[in-house]
Structure prediction request, 1022 residues.
Amino acid sequence: MSERPPRADPAVPPQLTPAGGPAADLAVEPGEAPPLDTAPTPPGTAPNLLDSLPPGPIPPAAAFSAAQAEPCLAVRDLAVSFRTRGGTVKALEQVGFTVGRGEIVALVGESGSGKSVTAYALMGILDAAGEVTAGTAQFGGTDLLHAPERTLRGIRGRDISMIFQNPRTALNPIRPVGKQIADVLIRHGGAGRREAPAAAIEMLRRVRITDPERRARAYPYEMSGGMCQRVMIAIALACRPKLLIADEPTTGIDVTTQAVIMDLLTGLARESGVSALVITHDLALASEYCDRVVVMHAGHVVEDAPVRDLFAHPRHPYTARLLAATPTGHASLADLASIPGSLPDLRRPDLPACRYIGRCDRALDSCQVSLQRREIAPSHLVACNNPL
Amino acid sequence: MSASTAPAPAPASPPGSTLLGHARYVVAENPVTGLAFGMAILLVVAALFGQWIAPYDPLASDTAAALQGPSAAHWFGTDQLGRDILSRVLVATSLDLRIAVFSVALVFALGGLAGLAAGYFGGWVDMVVGRLADVIMAFPLFVLAMGIVAALGNTVTNIVIATAIINFPLYARIARAETRQRAEAGFVEAARLCGHGNLSILLTQLLPNIMPIMVVQMSLTMGYAILNAAGLSFIGLGVRPPTPEWGIMVAEGASFIVSGEWWIALFPGLALMFAVFCFNLLGDGLRDVIDPRKRT
Amino acid sequence: MSETLPLLDVAELSRQFTVRGTTGGLLARLRGGAAAAPKLHAVDDVSFTIGRGETVGLVGESGCGKSTLVRVLTRLLDPTSGSIRLGSQDLTHLPARRFARRPERARIQMVFQDAGESVNPRYTAFDAIADPLRRLRRLRGAALRSRVETVATQCGLPLALLPRFPHQLSGGQRARVGIARAIAVEPELLVLDEPTAALDVSVQVVVLHLLARLKQELGMSYLFVSHDLNVVRLLCDRVLVMYLGRIVEEGPAGAVFANPRHPYTRALVEAIPQIGAEGAPERIRLGGEPRSPIDPDPNVCRFYGRCPRGFARCAEQMPPLHEVGPRHRAACHLVEGG
Prediction:
């Protein structure tokens, strides 16, 4: 890992590291999240990426348990607004959730719920009209929302990698996919120029691309959408990130391929202990592949619970409605219930405290002015004054 | 998905719902566009009313007042025959703009429609249009224009034709590319289900959709057409003296620069620059005004 | 089926595309003649019927030929061979080019996947719905306006939205415009090409209910193309499963989903994510890539190579559709003999 900067990145101003936070007295230093890295490899002797990767040897127990106390990613009170011609859109407000070490969390919501904006804000790739107005996102001692661009550049693609909705546009069209994987290994993974191509082929094999030697020389246009997405997964996991953010990774991909891709994505993440944040509009997909689901509506997190709890006992009226509207296992079309009302105009200066109020049949007078966010059951959070 | 795409029912953007309102918004956002519109209005006024605004008769020579520098009586000075340069520059606007407008209209009709057909039908239509454009592109364009005017005869009409021909490949290619992008679009298939035949799809569905880009292109080529016409006149093809035309005036004035009478060539040259600059800026501005999707 | 003529009767329909450019240039084509040009078999020997008032689902992966099949049925494309009958009328020999302007055009209409893209961006909602009425019904003026308003109301589109352009409408409203345009000319067969794929679930529910209601009110037949099998199961009476240009299974929706007989259908059904499906028995997962649709071997099952249960005979003989239940057929050697 010759290119890895030392633990406490000098570019991070000291006040941005969690001063006296819950992790401050732990053995792990800010800026470092050690689960997969064991000893630093001396420069020159290329680290054998592949040995340490696949059947995830669990790192030293001490480091691991210490790490578990601190989540991989902790987002608190995130607020984002966009300036538009019609006024300021308060796209996100008080968004908070955590992704534990090795946990796979789904961020679920309909369009306009702010799920992608959340991901973009975390990656620091909001478009120019958007602005983070409040909140923190602690990632191994760095606040992703306030760290200088230089620090973020070091984190993006190495400690956090991202998979996008349309793999074909995310890949460089004029470079063979094997070379693209090798590039990442050299840039972020500390691989040398000579062994990178072989390591890239190995990565292709791990994402179960048949005949990886030949496919490594293929260009993205020669591959199907599903295949490109596997290459993206290979790139994303190539340098063993700590967190993987997947933005609608299977939208526009056939259901049979979707199953294969999701099996692969979650399987590889679990076996190498990578935490993942999967952004999707599909509740059924989230239920099948994730540990925990964070439901968003109009820029608020309305419910956050382990998969089993959430689907067995949804506590927020919106989650319950969304479940009833998702066609799985319904006996007839008539059982499929819609969600009345519409999203509020997020440009209004006088937004009600609860943004679901206009669609809710359980609304109280108090919902206009205040919104209770509470832990209604162990690790089951809900933002509702009158939960189910 | 992003928050910038408004939630649920996209509210009718109150300030931008009309083209005029939108134009006002674009101008407010980008003052350069406003400047370009202002310049264009000046040019049009000069073209329409130049004859009456001009303080002197542009053709009347007065040897007593020959080769005078800029003064209160003659703002832009006088030329070797004592003609008032300001008047000549003003009156020339009409001719130069007319050449530009007609040649652009002609090339739009020829190249735009050929490109539209090529993009939609593909196959041999595409091949013929493409080869024709290639043949034209194979010549140095200005030399081609010279050749066409020399062969057809030294008239304003022939300048228009020559300018149109050398711009043909550009229009044909842009129209083809834009059409191709939309020829497979859902709304074209939907139109067929609504009972539109090929011709109807071309003219009522595709043409209106490529118009914005073509209008922008037309504005950009206007400047080029003016420059081209002036260039032809400069080398003695096209408009003949004593007709006031910017290119000729620059040509006539060029020989006097050495002897210190710089104003004869400078002012028509500036007028030329002004016009070219104006249409280029305008093209960029129009792109923003015309695209309906930018109206959010 | 036997008592009356079905609304749509498709028999042995095929559509091939000549593949250009990839192998051999002009010279090769001249030398080898037209026959040597490779052909992509997008739709291969497809037969089925749709009864009056019936909803038939068409499912399959992208690239399986369902889009081509739909475009041949709606007469946007000409078939290479086979026949299409609508009621008592044979549409096969009307070239797509001329069909566009005939009054029969109104009998088959289509709702497109992305209503945003299928409405001309320079048309208002009113213009979009009025377009087929102007061209196929020759309506003008007040008659046109009143018909557009009737249809818009039927589709739940507020009349105040009629002067808006597509980009000023929400996804659900655009979907309503697309549906209103298609039913304006009172078609007998409505082809729905993934009408809810671009919509959020809460909007999807509303559109599905709308479609179900319209069918009841107007007595249309639907061909519902979708990759969302959960939706197909709820909306359709009968299902056709396509794989690489051929129908591999067809039957009543309930039977096909509860008891899929073709291995491909099984994989498809089992790939649907289900809420609360943890701990489900081991599922079939399809690895690999489909075979090439270019000049496929007519004697090899199209699913062979990707099929988890393929065996030697699959590479020697193309399985025909076998009867496996009442009106339920599957094209697999494994189900031969019922």
